[in-house]
Amino acid sequence: MPVYSLGNATPTIHRSAYVHPDAIVIGDVTIGAESSVWPAVVLRGDEGHIIIGERTSIQDGSVVHTVEDSPTRIGDDCVIGHLVHMEGCTIESGVLVGSGSIILPRCIVRSGAIVGAGALVTGGTEIPAGATALGVPAKIKPDSADREAIEVAVHSYRQRARRFASELKLVEHENDRGLKS
Q1: Most buried of 1, 34, 107, 135, CB within 10 angstroms?
Q2: DSSP readout, 4-45?
Q3: What would the DSSP string read from start to end of 68-83?
Q4: Does domain 3-168 sit in CATH 2.160.10.10?
Q5: ∠ Cα 179 180 181 (to 5°)
Q6: Do 58 and 38 contact (CB within 8 A), yes or no?
């Protein structure tokens, strides 16, 4: 896995976290215990810090960035879906962010909330605890989040990370050895 310092900023990754070899971690980034960072994820802490709590999953192809005056904080027990783009926002604990969502600077997603797949959460929006945000731009449905679904997803990715940490092996393909197919 490529892990890069940027100036004096060096990533801190808890020893029990799983970071896939094809993820990229740059600069002022902290990854908590039992969290997982999947293939093609980019965590770029160049303009501020990124903090990822414990038991949180950042799934394939997601990009987490910061803006100069707003760090990105992701709490414990969160699932950040595939191809999510977020920067300069706060995601409290126990949140599910659906695949393909965009969360812009100074947004706050409170505990137990869900951001639906493909939603655009515009800058400065606050999503209340237990609410669901859906659409472009996101509209908030109070007290509609399925907390049990969030817990199931968190558990599933913790199990998956353990499996990948122990079983993932790079396989050399015939074409990689200069053989013709």
Answers
A1: 107
A2: E-BTTB--EE-TT-EE-TT-EEEEEEEE-TT-EE-TT-EEEE
A3: TTB-EEE-SS-EE-TT
A4: yes
A5: 120
A6: yes
User: Exposed (0-12), middle (13-18) or buried (19+): which is 46, by Cβ within 10 Å?
Assistant: middle
**Close Cβ partners of 72 (under 8 Å, ≥ 6 residues apart):** 48, 49, 50, 51, 64, 65, 66, 86, 87, 88, 89, 90
Q: Which two tokens stand for residue 138?
A: 């996101």
Tens digit of pLDDT for each residue in 77-134? Answer: 999 999 999 999 999 999 999 999 999 999 999 999 999 999 999 999 999 999 999 9
DSSP state of 164: H
12 Cβ neighbours under 8 A, 6+ residues apart? 29, 30, 31
Which H/E stretch holds residue 47? strand 42-52
The pair phi, psi for residue 147, each rounded to 5°, is: -60, -35
